[in-house]
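Lab notes, practical 5.
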Amino acid sequence: MRRRRNPVVVLLIAAGMSILLVYILSTFLMSAERKVKRVVYEFYEYESASQYSHSWELLHTKMRARFDRGSYVQDRAHVFNGHFGADTFSFDIGDTKKIQKWKMEKDGEAFETVYKLEVKQEYHGKYGHFIFVQFVYVVQEDGEWRILWDYKK
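Output from the prediction step:
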């Protein structure tokens, strides 16, 4: 006598296997440029929602050494929310450009491979309409993509 399988169980197993397969493929096949753009998008989503503590987490350790979390949160809120009078902002992320042997500071260490993106931040505040352009650099640190800014003079 043959036992019938419950179709709901079979569907659940098939759905679970499909989700696992999509996750594995996206993790291994997603291009570095796409991952880089995603972390920059996440960073500016946090910034535009005034969640500076979360955006600070996405900074490279060399950036975190420039300002601790408390100072970063306070400064960002003071400048963008206080001075500009903007509670939120919109942003646009440009194309990704791969750079070899890039330095954050003139005499600093060179990062082997860095991705450069141009981000335009658009503010509407008490002093009118502003658009800021910031160049963002992304490098892999301990298996995670992290954000750097250019401090060369």
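Observations recorded by the TA: Residues 7-29 form the longest helix (23 residues). The chain has five helices and four strands.
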